[in-house]
Amino acid sequence: MIGGMALPSYAQRPFIRLQQPGRITLVVHDSVQYISGATCKGCQLIVQDTPVRVYTTGGFAARVYLHAGENPIVLQARNKEGLAYNLQIVYRYEPPQPIAVRDFAIARIYTNPGVTSWLAPGDIIHIRVIAQAGCKAFWLHHLPLTEMVNQEDSLAGIYEGNYQVSATDLLNGPIQIMLQNAAGQTITAYTPNAFYTWPASAVVGKTTGDRPFMQYSLGEDRLGAAKRSYLDTGICMQVDGQFGDFYRVKLAPDQHAYVPVENLQLLPEGTPIPHATLGSWKVWGDSLYDYVQIQTGIRLPYDVQIYDHPGQIIVRLYGAVSNTNWIFQYLSVKEISQVHLHTVADGVVEAHINLKHPQPWGCILQYAGSALVVKVKRQPANLNLAHLRIAIDAGHGGSNTGATGPTGAKEKDLTLLLAKELNAALQHAGVQTIMTRTNDTSLSMQERENLLYQADPDLLLSIHLNASNNPIDISGTSTYYHYAGFRPLSLAIYHRLVATGLQEFGNIGNFNFALNGLTDFPNALIEVAFLTNPADEARILNPAFREKIIHAIISGLKDFLDECKK
After folding, report:
1. In sequence order, what are the residues at sequence separation of 6 or more whose Cβ sits closer than 8 angstroms to the Cβ of residue 544?
2. CATH architecture of 385-564
């Protein structure tokens, strides 16, 4: 048992259980491969005649170098009595080869956009065709494509081109590509995705559903594209294109964003493009919060940035022009020092909300009728740790197991264990805590967010363990934030985690994790260590080291609060 959590138990009879790779015969295209897994504690492990370190948990990781073709890799585990267990992994290494089309054929077609799209005049389609070299290639309106030659390897047979959509184009499906050889023979193929012409008349959509959001682009990583802003419902915006599952919205003459199709309801034809002349503003406070109310007349899209030192909240409204001659500011405000109005571009107005304290404590944006209300959280009256309400989110859970370590330890179990230990330590210090989960249950991000909205904590800490395909070189601790104004919390904790002896992986900003996108309270995602690294895994499975981690997190919290007191 580790801290009350049952872990796999093995006799000292030698064995090898692989975590990476998942199979013992496989084809790979990289000459460097990594093997990780577990063997009996106290066993020796040999990989291709080279000793490999076995950690106290039984976890191990090894790197192997392959040559082209079959590579039988032998692993041997031997216990103290001399009993041995052998396991063979067979890698077939096929070095990546450039595509060379020998026959008169079109092998592949790539486009950007790479999804079915509805395009407006001025949009660009880029195409790349891989076919037999030495031919002529044509596409839209029989325009020629250019055969590209890579100067390093003289690779031919790659044809590329760009096309700018015009107002007279009638795109209506996949685009035909024609290839013609020297003998005059022709063959045709079609783009894998279709292209259509976006309606010439104005199209307007309205946000719907839970937590609609805008993102900056269609680029992706494992967390999705970088989000620009979460939005209220009922916000109207001009739509001027569609790319797969996203509508493109026109925020200003030179600014676009992308909204999921499921979060934007298209309104009847003839709906006017949303535009507002801003009226009077009101700045006041009640017993708990300060407020900025902006009369817009219609629900416009917005985004928000939060900054520290000095504390500032900047709300940017799109589709607006200012006729604001009245900003009423009342003595009931406690956190807001001043509000400024700036027109930064055609149709773009910013509200600069300056705060009295250098550290912002969050804000909530929502419409009340046709007025945008920014609810500004005040710095807690007492900044001693025991007087705060802290939310703890144990990452993953239920069917979402997260990362898996060499010994088979699962992230969902260890994050819950760490969250419970942190919760107990904070409660012992007199802190009121909220946990998003206390058992092995599946919780969506939306469910976690809803729970946090209802709890309204002062701070949020989300506990995770990191993962990498390289279990040898990649290790260490990291913390994450989205808004610059919330960085001090993540940085204070990061300093303390590094002091435990963990390697630095970084304090990482502009992070796209859903709970980092909450503007409601300072928040930090903590990737305690890399579970896939056997040394880090052994640390996390050690109760004494976990106690160090909990102490580091709490010390980081105190450091953050001490800075806020200055």
Report:
1. none
2. 3-Layer(aba) Sandwich (3.40)
